[in-house]
Amino acid sequence: MxxxxxxxxxxxxxxxxxxxxxxxxxxxxxxxxxxxxGIGDLGGxxxxxxxxxxxxxxxxxxxxxxxxxxxxxxxxxxDPRDIDPLFGDxxxxxxxxxxxxxxxxxxxMDLVPNHTSDQHEWFQAALDSAPGSPExxxxxxxxxxxxxxxxxxxxxxxxxxxxxxxxISDADGKPEQWYLHIFAKEQPDLNWDNPEVFEDLAKTLRxxxxxxxxxxxxxxxxxxxKPEGLPDHDWDLNELMRNDxxxxxxxxxEVHQIHRGIRKVMNEFPEAMTVGEIWVRDNERFGEYIRPDxxxxxxxxRLAETEFAAESVRAAVxxxxxxxxxxxxxxxxxxxxxxxxxxxxxxxxxxIGTLRARAMALVELALPGAAFIYNGAELGLPNVDLPDDALxxxxxxxxxxxxxxxDGCRVPLPWEGAAPPFGFTTASSTWLPxxxxxxxxxxxxxxxxxxxxxxxxxxxxxxxxSRPEISGADIDWYGSPPGCLAFRRRGGxxxxxxxxxxxxxxxxxxxxxxxxxxxxxxxxxxxxxxxI
Length: 532
What we know:
It is a single chain. The protein is an alpha/beta fold. Helix content is 25%, strand content 15%. It contains 14 helices and 18 strands. It has helices at 42-47, 49-55, 90-102, 121-127, 195-209, 255-266, 283-288, 302-305, 310-325, 343-346, 350-366, 394-398, 443-447, 453-466, and strands at residues 22-26, 59-62, 66-67, 79-83, 106-111, 141-142, 165-169, 175-180, 215-218, 273-277, 297-299, 332-334, 370-374, 475-477, 484-489, 494-498, 511-514, 527-531. A hairpin with a 5-residue loop joins strand 7 (165-169) and strand 8. The chain is globular and about 80 Å long. Pfam families: Alpha-amylase.
């Protein structure tokens, strides 16, 4: 274990480890099951560290494993300083940290500061206390509008559908105040104007950092702070699971003071980092989150939202680089995560979607900065069209079955064998059903296949870590035919992408990797290549 006393201060002339790191996001429920209950756990992750070392990633990001009633699969935390029994216990986490560090793999955790579970001891105390009490002041309770307070305090909707307010009743069943929940009703928002809230978060940060955790992904990092008076808003453009830059629920200026406080705690552990989930479109406002005294990194989702078209990809790259340039920040890149449709499906599905996902993997991994790979992307997994009765995402119920939610990208990983559960578990079934057609996509099937998606990722990650040409914080663009792009890292690597409908000539250089074989020396459609 490490502690503030034995942490090594980073040499200011040496870039921190996260600047060019490849993070591998693990959705713990769906990675590997070690106890036979059909749900992935910490023991399963530790069992597969050899695979992750072979893949060549630098760090893991674990989606929530803290104690939770699982109303939103762990993003409703009832005890932020404990492990949920579904995944193991503190001893299992300590063992995973130790084992990962022995393989030179960092471990980062999800942190959920915007809200707690409604089962958190603080919220239970708030329910048992009177309006205006210290217990209620940790959350956002308000009297309702209208006769007898029957209307919500304002017109805010929940990201998951329905109103963002739920009314409680007193011990006698009499309707009482309302509480705010930007997400599900089981996720009451904390009141960050109350100093107790930050004090508790600081305690949580130090608890995990002192156990050897290398950093945190901060959920809804643009949330937390709420505008004075909680004003009504025009929601004509409101969509489930989305927000724009004028949304009063997010991106309020006071949030930056919260991040400065987090950074002060992180500075006690100089080798640890934070990366924020920041759904902010405006580049200047995005950049504010990664100023030197706030977050170390900020998720930019432009690539994950971009169609497979060279012009769009270039625009996303240029935008992402511009968003960090003014504040001297490090860009981040990702093609998918637990909230986003998998890239194979997003790019058209089937063979064409797979070819395009292979090409975009090389684009992502050629870019300067930190890259994030969602578990299963390296296997070329598509989204799964699950039956209605299998869906578990709260969005499904909260939207009145209008939105299917995110379960399709969260199906457990296939490891080996010819039929479900593909070595994921010794149980007969998994928490989300696995499609039989994944038999050709298992780790076992792909490891020895030099043409597989897994082999492509392994080759790209090995080259990224070993070739000096894959370096430099800036890129230069080449002139390219319509539907194509090419850029050069300052270290010398050239990456070319062909999204047109005809093969193209490549820039001068030796090809060291391509997402599909060249044809007569030309780069085929739906293909990318690396050259030096």
